Amino acid sequence: MAASNTTSRRVLEATAGRIRELNEKLIELGKQPGQNSLDTYEKALHRLLDFEKTVASRSELDRVSALANTHAKFVQDLTGFHTKAARDALK
After folding, report:
1. Distance CA 36, CA 49 (A)
2. What is the DSSP secondary-structure string of 27-75?
3. Tens of each residue's pLDDT in the chain, 91 residues
């Protein structure tokens, strides 16, 4: 009976180990699309902000240019904090 319990325990531990490995692989596979989505989001946002800055630089009104540049900087900083937090969560 003791040999049977030892064998059952080994089988159970081996099964639990395989399940753990599978879970870790699934988690890693789930992180990559998240990273790709963040990369795409950042690129799109940077293009939009670059466009905003370009339009602002062509304005003949200094106040409009300053406001647009300040807005672009604010959005860039805020988004940087959020994407960094999201990347840290995906680690």
Report:
1. 20
2. HHHHHHHHHHHHHHHHHHHHHHHHHHHHHHHT-S-HHHHHHHHHHHHHH
3. 566 778 888 888 888 888 889 888 888 888 888 889 999 999 999 999 999 889 888 888 889 889 888 999 999 999 999 999 988 888 7
| Contact status, residue 29 vs residue 90, Cβ threshold 8 Å | no
Long-range contacts at 38-46 (CB < 8 A, ≥ 24 apart) = 38/83, 38/86, 38/87, 38/90, 41/83, 42/79, 42/83, 45/75, 45/76, 45/79, 46/76
At residue 77, the 3 state secondary structure works out as helix
Token pair, residue 2, equals 């003791």
Neighbour-count burial for 71-85, b at 16+ CB within 10 Å, e otherwise: ebeeeeeeeeeeeee
Tell me the C-alpha distance between 73 and 45, whole Å. Answer: 12
